[in-house]
């Protein structure tokens, strides 16, 4: 059985004050809910504080990015050991905003996934196609390319054993244009099959989240699909009631 995960990606939003009330509201509303694992990924500067507030709640802490390098002369970067040090469990890698705005290529994303796993953290690997790629029938080709860079190397395949995959069609992120449950399920099933071709046991156990305009009112129909094991939530994770509604929507 794959335990559903709902992870909130705050992106570059929030303040200390706002983080405090958001976490308090989520902790109170979520209570002890064994059916879902929740995680919060705040900006780096709030990780320690959010981590302390989450302590004992069962809600996991995650980071939005990390350096592929170990500690050293990399001004402005954050290492996996620092993330471990402040209590992170998850690290998002390959988010489409990092790919599009910061030029992160498949090879760099794969390097980060391997480094995250080697440090004892769990990668959340984001994959997904652009609108023009979907419209030209290239969705599977793009997602396969983004996965294969890990599937085709021994260390990549080893890292995938501890990875959560998030299918996030780029055209659905922050646009209010959610993929239909059928569109999402088709790609999730494709991802699982692609992994099964290399490792059938891994394909069965890997959690595949959907991300892209998930809200309280569309989460249950997405999460009802066989291969959708939760969500990676952007905008709606900044609102207590929305985030809670999404957590309660898991099957
Ligand atoms: P969104 O973002 O929920 O605001 O569409 C999702 C994501 O970028 O992970």
- Most strands sheet: 8 strands, parallel, barrel
CATH fold naming: TIM Barrel
Topology pattern, helix = H, strand = E:
EHEHEHEHHEHHHEHHEHEH
Structural class: alpha/beta
Average pLDDT, to the nearest integer? Answer: 97
**Quick one: CATH class?**
Alpha Beta
Report the helical percentage: 40-55%
Distance between the termini: 12 Å
**Rg of Cα set:** 17 Å
CATH homologous superfamily identity: Aldolase class I
Number of helices in the DSSP assignment: 12
Pick out its properties.
251 residues, alpha/beta, TIM Barrel, 43% helix, 14% strand, binds 2-phosphoglycolic acid
Summarize the structure.
The chain is 43% helix and 14% strand.
Describe the structure.
This protein is of the alpha/beta class and 251 residues long. The protein has one domain (5-248): TIM Barrel (Alpha-Beta Barrel). The protein has helices spanning 16-30, 47-54, 80-85, 96-101, 106-118, 131-135, 139-151, 154-160, 181-196, 200-205, 219-223, 240-248, and strands at residues 5-9, 37-41, 60-63, 90-93, 122-127, 164-167, 208-211, 230-233. An eight-stranded parallel barrel has the order 1-2-3-4-5-6-7-8, surrounded by five helices. The chain binds 2-phosphoglycolic acid. The site of 2-phosphoglycolic acid has 13 residues, from strand 8.
Q: How would you summarize the topology of this molecule?
A:
Elements: E1 5-9, H1 16-30, E2 37-41, H2 47-54, E3 60-63, H3 80-85, E4 90-93, H4 96-101, H5 106-118, E5 122-127, H6 131-135, H7 139-151, H8 154-160, E6 164-167, H9 181-196, H10 200-205, E7 208-211, H11 219-223, E8 230-233, H12 240-248
Parallel strand pairs: 1-2, 1-8, 2-3, 3-4, 4-5, 5-6, 6-7, 7-8
Helix pairs in contact: 1-2, 1-12, 5-7, 5-8, 7-9
